[in-house]
Amino acid sequence: MSRVEGGRPSPARPAAHAIARDLLAWFDARKRDVPWREERDPYRIWVAEVMAQQTRIDTVRPYYHDFLERFPDVGALAAAPLDDVLRVWQGLGYYARARHLHRAAAVVAERHGGTLPSTVEDLRALPGVGAYTAGAIASLAFGLAEPAVDGNARRVLSRVFDLEAPTAERLERAAREVLDAAPGRPAAVNQAVMDLGGAVCTPRAPACAVCPVGVTCLARARGTQDERPPRRRSAPAPPRRAAAALVTREGRALFVKRPPEGLLGGLWDLPGTSPVRVERRSPPIGEIRRALEAALADRHAITARVGRRLETVHHTFSHFRLRLDVFAAEWHAGEPAGEAVWAGAGQGGVGELATPTYLRAILPRLEGLETRRTQVWCLESRVSTEGGEAYGWQGASPQE
Ligand code: SF4
Fold it and tell me: Which domains, ranges and CATH numbers included, belong to the chain?
């Protein structure tokens, strides 16, 4: 039975056929300029979908082209050193995505002959491929009627079907209803739902008056748009503080490679202390210097005298806000433990290393240092990456 609210009839269920028809008409007329929209190569679609997660399309665009130029197919990606992949990814953030892509490419090369598998089950067995990515590849590359429910699609489906509790199962069912109503066009349906969430059915103030599915949307009919989907309350990212050292020796600076997994895994970073929760009062600068000298000795096996503060960098990760104080330090003795390089500026130097974005503020300090870099590969690392201790950072999370 239908309810009437505000003079608008409210059906118990929206008509999937009408939704699919109106969505596709809107999508076909829209012709959004997305570089991979017309792409049918599963590898390219996979790269695009991974890059576009939590990242704006305009940001992704240059990275997408550079990545494909450098790694044109699964084989090229699988054969490349992780360092090269991270260097191309540098600045895009969420580096776990790049590590997973690289590892998954090796699996595809080894187990699937270099061709991306075409079933959702096989796709989901690849490192880093979840329900959304598998559904996106299956529908966009292989034309399978599989849902791809990202944050935008979750919002649209929750509203169109007025779902009070949009569980993954319920959303999948709703998405399948729309997909089944438009046989032969799963890629367009999935993209249309996501696009609608990005352009019209926005989190705040959805543009219902111009929405192509406005006449069938249950949330609009019932006036529940603002409650759908229920807001996920996330705690504000807590502040943390750390110190790092620009250790110089014979005209070059020391960079250490972070452990392969966890926060900024595999990137080259300055040696330093772990991020700690911010105390009410800042510790005296002498105390920070001593902690930094101790970290250099304990974690990196070098003795260095820490001098003046060069920069203070602020950077927000997904799960904490970092204040990083970077100090000048002069090497005295010892060879760095673990993977480390002494690098200068310019060609052949630090510019060839994949480094975290927040180091950009520091790199001009390297001007005037030598351009060569000397690689130091130590046979034995004193740093354990399994017990939570890692080059100056702890509490690593797969999300950067
Ligand atoms: S009518 Fe409004 S709430 Fe419903 S899908 Fe369109 S924009 Fe979203």
Answer: 13-227 (1.10.340.30), 239-377 (3.90.79.10)
